[in-house]
Amino acid sequence: MLHTINPDICLVSETFETGKRRLTEILESTHYTHYSYYRKNRAPGGGCAVLFNQKRFRVEDLEVEALPEIENTWVLLTPKSVGQNCNIK
What we know:
This protein is mainly beta. The protein has one domain (2-79). Helix content is 10%, strand content 33%. The chain is built from two helices and five strands; from the N terminus they run αβαββββ. The strands form two sheets. It has a three-stranded antiparallel sheet, with no helix packed on it. It has a two-stranded antiparallel ribbon with strand order 4-5. It is flat, with a radius of gyration of 14 Å. It starts with a helix and ends in a 10-residue tail after the last strand. 11% of the residues are buried.
């Protein structure tokens, strides 16, 4: 579905990522980069991720504190088509 629609950014819940099967293997995609989170103390299922087209965005991983039972991941994406000092993020 990602390859058909080809979005620049995709926010995903219920990724079914595990320590043994990472999201890159599940998606089998070469042009998307992802930042994801899954709780190790859960049964299979759950997890969240931010997927983005690595050719179009610069990324900065953000450390945002949250309760351990909350699945979350935070990144700052900036379009590569604009300068480094751009206010668009």
